[in-house]
Amino acid sequence: MYLSIWCHNLNLSSRSLAIALVACVTLLYFSYSFNACLFASLSRTLQQSNLRNLLALPQRNGTSDKAAAVASDSNKTTAGVVAASAAVLPLPPSVDGAPKYQMLRQQGLRPSRHLPDTLIIGVKKSGTRALLEFIRLHPDVRAAGSEVHFFDRHYQRGLRWYRHHMPYTIEGQITMEKTPSYFVTKEVPQRVYHMNTATKLLIVVRDPVTRAISDYTQAASKKADMKRFEQLAFVNGSYAVVDTNWGPVKIGVYARYLERWLLYFPLSQLLFISGERLIMDPAYEIGRVQDFLGLKRVVTEKHFYFNATKGFPCLFKSEARSTPHCLGKTKGRNHPHIDASAIERLREFYRPFNNKFYQLTGINFAWP
Ligand code: A3P
């Protein structure tokens, strides 16, 4: 009897034990799941805000492509730092940052750097910066911001180095670079040919006399005690002999440099832009450039206005600035007065070379 009562008691207590055990396990399970969720969400938030700071990722609004490139560069340099965390949690998909790529990123497409398809190879002081700034208004053109000087100064660094200096592009966009000294540097045509035989070449040219004066003005702005233009452009103080070894004069013999390029590239791969017309009618010249590059004519007269104070065409807005602006102070400088006889003598000197250049290009630039 006592045994049966004891047994009954035992049954009762083991049932309650079992119930308590189940309750405990359920409680533990819910508590664990809740904590795990909380932890994962917290660490994800921390990870993303850390990465954003680390990579200086731009926020959604007002992000320039430059910032995107910087962010992407930072991504490279901080790759080692983020690698460990990347193994635990995936990197945010927006390391390239730019909102204009957002839709493509969502489709799994990522911008990447490419060697240039098109080069602005010269000619120095003919309007090369204006050309670059104008054509890069086109959404399908992305350009390296500064002159890379790969083919003339940094060739030994190799094409990987060069590509790293290019902007990020997505499929269908053209990569462009401008270094005006390429046109006159002996080794460059062959080097460009070896990179890509199909490279398109843009060359802005301007009356070589005005170009020489512009070149001199730039040099004089950097050197206080510079001799007068007339003293440098001629040998022995008279206007009889032109100093063809003086850089500003030498560069204006365009035909001589063009012949070297034509050894490697057919004329059809070269486009000559008139520096004079780029000032008078920028939309016309940019229209030609867009056609040559197989681009839709997006950049038109609507993008330009003439700034009477500056005396040059300026932009309503660009990739870098959304307000009307002109090129910097170093573009469109006032030239010093040059003796009229010196100018006349230089014109006479250039005439046969200009004619040769017209003949080679098939274009009469009608320089005086
Ligand atoms: P100047 O400063 O002597 O007038 P580059 O960019 O190849 O160095 O050429 C500079 C020249 O570009 C300037 O020479 C200027 O004449 C010319 N140029 C053409 N379009 C221009 C623009 N919209 N604004 C300023 N300069 C322009």
Automatic annotation (TrEMBL):
The active site is at residue 125. GO terms for molecular function: [heparan sulfate]-glucosamine 3-sulfotransferase activity. Keywords: Disulfide bond, Glycoprotein, Golgi apparatus, Membrane, Signal-anchor, Transferase, Transmembrane, Transmembrane helix. 3'-phosphoadenylyl sulfate binds at residues 125-129, 206, 214, 331-335. GO terms for cellular component: Golgi membrane. It is a single-pass type II membrane protein. Transmembrane segments: none annotated. Residues 116-351 form the Sulfotransferase domain. It is found in: Endomembrane system; Golgi apparatus membrane. Disulfide bonds join 314-326. PANTHER family: HEPARAN SULFATE 3-O SULFOTRANSFERASE-B, ISOFORM A (PTHR10605:SF72), HEPARAN SULFATE SULFOTRANSFERASE (PTHR10605). This is Sulfotransferase domain-containing protein.
